[in-house]
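re: the backbone from monday

yeah here it is again, tokenized this time
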């Protein structure tokens, strides 16, 4: 579908946490004044478009928590104003780029991409070993399960702490009320 009346003067677009599917649309490449683009937490697939690296005013690009594949294009290394670059939890492969702004990004910007390597994530790139191949991309069901699993783990931990506290209070109360004299003698209270 072609949208011919989309404004090209946006400076920030936060389209995160949507269920956008498919590749990153070509219309994003025509937004020359765009400074911030957040397409995180979607179902975007395919490679990162190289043309995004030619948007000279970019300050922040967040493509995390999608299903993007392939290598990180080299063009974003030429963006002088880029302060935030997050491609974590995708299916990207290859070396993490070096130079200019890329040397300033946190290693968490690349987490969850088992096929990436380089100095920023302390995983050495082994170009000469054919056995070192990037992991196969997860199926869409597997990626959704990964996100749900991380969310489920926190809920499980909180549930465990709450139950442990409650059981501890109940058992402590039973022990103290039934064996009050033993408690008093043992700890010499009176």
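seq for it, each position gets an aa:
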């Amino acid at each position: 579908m072609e949208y011919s009346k989309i404004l090209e003067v946006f400076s920030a677009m936060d389209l995160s946490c949507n269920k956008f599917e498919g590749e990153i649309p070509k219309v994003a490449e025509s937004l020359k004044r765009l400074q911030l683009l957040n397409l995180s937490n979607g179902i975007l697939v395919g490679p990162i478009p190289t043309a995004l690296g030619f948007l000279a005013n970019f300050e922040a690009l967040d493509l995390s928590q999608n299903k993007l594949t392939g290598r990180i294009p080299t063009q974003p290394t030429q963006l002088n104003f880029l302060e935030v670059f997050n491609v974590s939890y995708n299916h990207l492969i290859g070396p993490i780029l070096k130079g200019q702004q890329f040397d300033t990004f946190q290693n968490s910007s690349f987490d969850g991409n088992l096929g990436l390597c380089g100095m920023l994530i302390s995983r050495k790139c082994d170009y000469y070993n054919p056995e070192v191949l990037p992991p196969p991309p997860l199926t869409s069901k597997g990626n959704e399960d990964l996100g749900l699993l991380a969310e489920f783990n926190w809920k499980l931990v909180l549930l465990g702490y709450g139950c442990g506290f409650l059981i501890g209070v109940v058992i402590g109360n039973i022990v103290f009320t039934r064996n009050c004299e033993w408690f008093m003698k043992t700890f010499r209270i009176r």
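Residues 128-142 have pLDDT under 50 and may be disordered. The two ends are 83 Å apart (CA to CA).
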